[in-house]
Amino acid sequence: MLYVAQVIPLPRRSWIITDIEWDHNARKEMSDWLHELEEAQKRIPERLSLIQKMLQRLPKDRITASDLTKSLRGLRNTKSRLLRLEAG
């Protein structure tokens, strides 16, 4: 999601996720990448706050699918109203 939102580039690493169990270097590279992702989350612009809510590390802190759906519907309804006002 951070890549899609243009907050980060694609990973530069070449680690293979199946190697992290036994390869110390792969595990370190993955750990470094996760740290980069956590830092990048802090740079997510306010207008993309739903992405921030989806990327919380702890599941209990993440937005639920139901709340995400409600938020997206609210955004769609707001956009529709604005378009009607502009047209109207």
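(ticket continues) Second input and output from the same batch:
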Amino acid sequence: MRVMARLGVDVKERLFGRTALYFAAITDKNTIIMLLISARVSVDVKTENTGCTPLYIAALRGHEAIVKIMIKARASLTETEQNELTPEAIARMKRYHAIASLLEGGGS
């Protein structure tokens, strides 16, 4: 993160309404997620156009490790996107049963 700061990279900046945390969640980049969380970015920041959180995106894509990291970072399990779906609801719709169970039990 220090290297990024020295280069003038703002990890909270948005590109097309999405943050670095969003892009790390959608591409399943565990290490980047952990670095961003350690830099204290908001884990519940929503996309500007659809209102998706990084946890929602990880659940949508079936990225179980990212979901676990986000739960441990205390991401909201109840935030909804524009269609009022929670991360658990989208995981169930996509038949990612293990992820849905994690979200239902709050990570336990």
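Agent notes: Residues 2-104 form a domain with the Serine Threonine Protein Phosphatase 5, Tetratricopeptide repeat fold (CATH 1.25.40.20). Residues 1-9 have pLDDT under 50 and may be disordered. Closing as not reproducible unless the customer responds.
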